[in-house]
Design goal:
The complex is a heterodimer. By secondary structure, chain A is an alpha/beta fold. Chain A is built from 8 helices and 16 strands. Chain A has helices at 15-24, 40-48, 66-80, 91-104, 213-223, 231-235, 266-269, 301-313; strands at residues 2-9, 12-13, 31-35, 53-57, 84-88, 108-116, 122-127, 132-138, 145-148, 165-167, 180-186, 199-203, 226-229, 256-260, 277-282, 295-298. In chain A, a hairpin with a 2-residue loop joins strand 1 and strand 2. Chain B is α/β, with parallel strands linked by helices. In chain B, helix 2 (68-76) packs across helix 5 (188-194) and helix 3 crosses helix 4. The N and C termini of chain B lie far apart (59 Å). Classes of the chains: A alpha/beta, B alpha/beta. The complex binds flavin-adenine dinucleotide (FAD) and adenosine monophosphate.
C-alpha cells in the first residue's frame, strides 16, 4: 500500500501533497502521514482526495522539527513496512526524506515526475532540461522514498469520506532535533498565485537592474497575471524566492509564459516548458530559450516591453 | 572552529553532458570543475573560519581526475582536502554518497559542516540532510544568511513565503543557497599555494563504507521535444507580434 507524506501549510494540506495523493490512489489504498496541527477541514480534504487512513504527527512547537518528524516516521515504517513513501517535493519534504533515508536505509528517488509500483518501485525524472527521461528502479533495501515534483499530477478529489485518524506520538531526536525557530517573515504577495496563474510574465538578468523588474510587474498587472523570475535575480535579491520558476523553484504551466531577458538555462526550462504558449524576448538570437519559444523576439527588453505595455494600455 | 565543507567536482556545465551508454551514469571527464553551487559553501566556510579562528577542510567524493575542481576551492583559501575516490562508488546514490561524506567528516572532526542546497549535476537535494542525520546533528537548511556567536549558529532559512530565523548549537550542518554570499576569486598567491596544500585520497574501505548502490537506471528515453516556433528580429514593430500572440492565446 502506498504511503503519502503531506505537510500542512496555513492550516491546509499543501497542494503538491494532494497531487501526489491523487496519483497514489491509482497505486493502491493510500495511507497519509500528515504533519501539522490538523483540523476537521484538513482531514476532510485528505479524505476527499482518497486517503484511506491518516497517521497524524504534530510537529514540536517553536522547533524546526524535521529530525523529530523523520524519527517518528522511521518508527512507523519499521512497524508497517509500506511499499513506498511518496512525498511532494517541498523544502520540508526534502529535509524529512533525507533524514528518513539515513535512518531507515531506504533509497531516495528525487525529482520524480512519474512513479510506478510495477515490478518494484521506479520513478521517471527529466534530465538535461527535460530533453531526456530517465527511469530509475529501486534495488536497495527498505521502503523507497520518492520525492515528486509539483504539478506532475493533477489534484483530483475522489469524493472520499473523512478517514480514520491515528494520532502518532512524536519521537525524540536528541541533539539532531534541537534546532529552534525564533522568527518567521512572510513577504507580502499581491495578484494571482504564481503556480495557479493563467499568465506568467517572468524576468531574468537581462533586465539589467532591479528597478527594471517594474516593467515585468506592470505587464503582469495589465494581463491579470503573476510575475516570475529566474534564480539569477532571486539570488541577487531583486525579487523573493517565492517568484522563482525552475528546478529549485515553482513549476508553472500557464496559458502564456512571457520570458523577458531570460537565457533559458535547463534548470529554468524544467519549470516552465510545459506552458501552452511561450513568448521570449532576448537580445541574443542564440539564447536557448528560443528553442522552446512559440514566439521569439530577438530584441532589447528595454525597448520591446514598454511598447507592449503602451499598446495594452491603449486597449 | 573546525569547518568541513562538502564540495563536488563536476563536468564543466558549459560542456555537453553525456550518459554512459552501459550504465547510464554521467560521464565524468578527467578534468572536472568545482560545482559553482559549492563556491558559495566554500566562501561561507572561509568567512566562518576567518572570524572564529577556524580551519576549513574540503570533503569530496568522486573521481579525482586532475583535481582541478578541488584545487579551485583550495585556491580560494581552504586549508586541506579529503577526497574519496573509489571505482566501487561509481553511480553512487544519494545515501551512499552521504555515508561516505559523513564518515570522512567524522574522521576529520568538525564543529560546522557546510554544504550546498543541491548539486548542479545530481540535484537530489537530500545529501546534506542525510549527512546531518548520519552525524546526529541538526540541519539548518536553505540558508540565505548565516552568523555564529558563542556556540550558536543562526541562519535565515528560505521558505516558500519568505524566511524563518532558525538557530542551534554546534555541532551542526548548514546548507547554503547560492545567494548567501559573494564567493571570492582565487588570487594568484592562492593559486600557487593551493598546489602544495594537503590532499588526502581515501577509498570507501578506508572509511569502512560499502559502496552498494540502491538504484538502477532501467531506461533512458528522449522526451518529445517542443518544437521551436518563430523567431523575429525586432525592427521596432515586433511588439505587435506579441500583441497578436496574446490575442491568439485568447488572453486579451
Ligand atoms: C542546482 C541548480 C538549480 C537551479 N535552479 C534554478 C531554478 O529553479 N530556476 C532558475 O531560473 N534557475 C535555476 N538555476 C540557475 C540557472 O542555471 C541559470 O543560471 C539561471 O536560470 C540564469 O538566469 P537568467 O536567465 O536570468 O540569467 P542569464 O543566464 O545571465 O541570462 C540573461 C539573458 O538576458 C539576455 N539579455 C541581456 N540583456 C538583455 C536585454 N537588454 N534585452 C533582452 N535580453 C537581454 C542575455 O542574452 C541572456 O540570455 C539553477 C542552477 C543550479 C546549478
Ligand atoms: N559527491 C559529493 N562530494 C561532496 N559533496 C557532495 C557530493 N554530493 C553532494 N554533495 C554535497 O551535497 C550538496 C547537495 O547535493 P545533492 O544532494 O546531490 O543535490 C552539494 O552542494 C554538496 O555540498
Amino acid at each position: 500500500m502506498p504511503w503519502v507524506y503531506i505537510e500542512e501549510s496555513q492550516g491546509a494540506p499543501v497542494t503538491v501533497g494532494l497531487e501526489v495523493l491523487s496519483k497514489a490512489r491509482s497505486l493502491g489504498e493510500p495511507t497519509v502521514v500528515y504533519v501539522g496541527e490538523g483540523s476537521d477541514a484538513a482531514f476532510a480534504t485528505l479524505g476527499a482526495h482518497g486517503a484511506a487512513k491518516v497517521l497524524h504527527i504534530t510537529p514540536p512547537a517553536g522547533m524546526l522539527g524535521t529530525a523529530q518528524v523523520a524519527a517518528t516516521i522511521a518508527e512507523l515504517i519499521a512497524a508497517h513496512s509500506p511499499g513506498v513513501l511518496l512525498l511532494g517535493m517541498t523544502y520540508g519534504a526534502r529535509d524529512v526524506a533525507g533524514r528518513l533515508s539515513a535512518r531507515t536505509g531506504g533509497t531516495v528517488l528525487a525529482n520524480a515526475i512519474d512513479v510506478s509500483l510495477d515490478g518494484g518501485v521506479s520513478a521517471v525524472n527529466e534530465v538535461f532540461g527535460g530533453a531526456k527521461l530517465v527511469t530509475t528502479r529501486v534495488t536497495g533495501p527498505g521502503t523507497p522514498l520518492v520525492l515528486v515534483r509539483p504539478k506532475s499530477f493533477p489534484a483530483e478529489p475522489s469524493g472520499g469520506d473523512v478517514p480514520p485518524i491515528e494520532s502518532v506520538p512524536l519521537a525524540d531526536a536528541g541533539h539532531a532535533g534541537s534546532a529552534r525557530v525564533t522568527g518567521t517573515h512572510t513577504e507580502k504577495a499581491a495578484g494571482p498565485k504564481l503556480e495557479d496563474a493563467a499568465i506568467v510574465v517572468a524576468g531574468g538578468r537581462g533586465l539589467g537592474k532591479e528597478e527594471a523588474f517594474g516593467m515585468v510587474e506592470e505587464l503582469a498587472d495589465l494581463l491579470g497575471g503573476a510575475t516570475g523570475a529566474t534564480r539569477a535575480i532571486v539570488d541577487s535579491g531583486w525579487v523573493p524566492y517565492a517568484k522563482q520558476v525552475g528546478q529549485t523553484g515553482k513549476t508553472v504551466k500557464p496559458d502564456v509564459y512571457i520570458a523577458c531577458g531570460i537565457s533559458g538555462a535547463m534548470q529554468h526550462l524544467v519549470g516552465m516548458k510545459d506552458s501552452s504558449t511561450i513568448i521570449a524576448i532576448n537580445k541574443d538570437e542564440e539564447a536557448p530559450i528560443f528553442a522552446v519559444a512559440d514566439l521569439g523576439i530577438v530584441g532589447d527588453v528595454h525597448k520591446v516591453l514598454p511598447q507592449v505595455i503602451e499598446a495594452l494600455k491603449g486597449r | 572552529m573546525k569547518v568541513a565543507v562538502c564540495v563536488k567536482q563536476i563536468p564543466d556545465p558549459a560542456s555537453d553532458y553525456q550518459l554512459d551508454p552501459e550504465d547510464h551514469t554521467l560521464v565524468r571527464p578527467n578534468e572536472q570543475v568545482l560545482d559553482d553551487t559549492d563556491r558559495y559553501g566554500v566562501e561561507v566556510a572561509l568567512q566562518m573560519a576567518e572570524r572564529h579562528e577556524g580551519t576549513v577542510t574540503l570533503i569530496s567524493m568522486g573521481p579525482s581526475g586532475n583535481l582541478q575542481g578541488v584545487r579551485q576551492a583550495l585556491a580560494m583559501g581552504a586549508d586541506k582536502a579529503v577526497l574519496v575516490d573509489d571505482p566501487s562508488l561509481k553511480g553512487a546514490d544519494s545515501l551512499t554518497t552521504a555515508r561516505v561524506l559523513a564518515a570522512a567528516i567524522e574522521r576529520e572532526g568538525f564543529d560546522l559542516v557546510i554544504a550546498g542546497t543541491e548539486s548542479t549535476d545530481g540535484y537530489s537535494g537530500v545529501v546534506p540532510q542525510q549527512v546531518a542525520e548520519l552525524l546526529s546533528v541538526p540541519a539548518l537548511t536553505y540558508a540565505i544568511a548565516i552568523e555564529y556567536a558563542d556556540g550558536t549558529v543562526r541562519i535565515k532559512r528560505q521558505t516558500a513565503t519568505g524566511y524563518d530565523e532558525v538557530e542551534s548549537e554546534t555541532p551542526v550542518l548548514v546548507s547554503v543557497t547560492s545567494g548567501v554570499v559573494e564567493p571570492r576569486y582565487p588570487t594568484f598567491k592562492g593559486i600557487m599555494q593551493a598546489k602544495s596544500k594537503p590532499v588526502d585520497t581515501l577509498t570507501a574501505a578506508d572509511l569502512g563504507v560499502d559502496g552498494s548502490v540502491g538504484q538502477q537506471v532501467t531506461a533512458v528515453d528522449v522526451s518529445p521535444a517542443r518544437a521551436a516556433g518563430e523567431k523575429v528580429e525586432d525592427d521596432g514593430e515586433a511588439y505587435l507580434r506579441i500583441i497578436t500572440a496574446l490575442e491568439e492565446a485568447k488572453v486579451i
